[in-house]
Amino acid sequence: MISLILASPSDARFQAAVQTYQRAIPQNEPFEIIRISEAKSLAEAYNRALKLSRGDILIFSHDDVEPLTANLAERLHHHLATYDIIGVAGTSRLVSPRWIDAGPLYTFGHVAHPYEGNTFVVSIYGARARVNPNIQALDGLFLACRREAVEKIGWDEQTFPGFHCYDIDFTFRAFQAGHKLAVVMDIPLLHNSHGRFDAAWQPHANAFLKKHGHLPPHIPFECQWAGIRVATKDQARHIMNETIETLP
Question: pTM for this one?
Answer without folding.
Answer: 0.95
